[in-house]
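note to self — DONT lose this again. spent like an hour looking for the file last time. sequence + predicted structure for the chain T wanted, 366 res
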Amino acid sequence: MDAQESCSARNHTWIAEAIRRLRADANRSADTHLHVFPLPQEWEIQLYLKDESVHPTGSLKHRLARSLFLYGIANGWITETTPVIEASSGSTAVSEAYFAQLLGLRFIAVMPKSTSPEKIELVERYGGECHFTEIPLEIYNEAKRLAEELDGHYMDQFTYAERATDWRGNNNIAESIFEQMLCEPHPIPEWIVVGAGTGGTSATIGRYLRYNRYLTKLAVVDPENSSYYPSWATGATDYTTGMPSRIEGIGRPRVEPSFIPTVIDLMLDVPDAASVAAMRHLERSTGLKAGGSTGTNMWGVWRLIAQMRKTGAKGSIVTLICDGGERYPHTYYDDGWLRQNNLDIAPYEKTIERFLETGSWEAPAN
């Protein structure tokens, strides 16, 4: 066997072992809990919260990161010596750092200098490196530059999220939801409610619904400063706000390539104060401490349930707990941070409490 054949054999051996490790992780963490939120029984509406915070890296992005590594390895973009670079200041960077460590690969997360110390610490805990930019929108080009300089692979979650996950099934999040709903009173949900960060989750769920001929509708919630809702509402695919979202994990200053608006039945814009109010209410009412993007989901859920109540519809709704609240002690759970950001959550808390007591929905004037 010559040197070239020997190198090829080693590479195939590494690929086989890498994919085995990734699939083993999938077997260990495939299904996450589906919690029931207590609603008045007479409403005949059930709400389920799929808890993605229980993944090994603590968020919904664990699924995406694993899919991106599988995609990169299967395409031959990632080998045993390839540095992996990502543009992310959030949970995707944490999850990708975990998988890079699992595979013995160098990982660099390109993020703005404003990234929270908690997120930086989590990336570094898994052996990842953090590379900072002055301006948030510089992270894309800087990640590309680093990948070229280091002869590495730019993971590019915002482009590949919608194609790296098998939307037909293969234990994706949509398939998991429907399997867990089989024994419930209304096993086919009226609505599934999610946010959009990369757009990969909504693309996967929307495609899965159509492929399996479910009548379930997909609602996507969007925070302030994000380009997704105005893009969907106006049809302007190049819509940009140039502003970062205060709700970590969702919302983007530009429309990302993985955002597929045509699979979405309804988009709802959600004030940031409403996201925080709903997040905090979730903890008070259930003990489930989640992050701000879960609060955005919950506000959208309340609006949809109110509409179902108004029309007399019965059925179920499913949404996601995207990550745990322990990542946000100095932001969403800090009253001082709320004051600094001029976020008054009290009117939104009153709306939620009044709705759950009376079934009447009266949102505060924005």
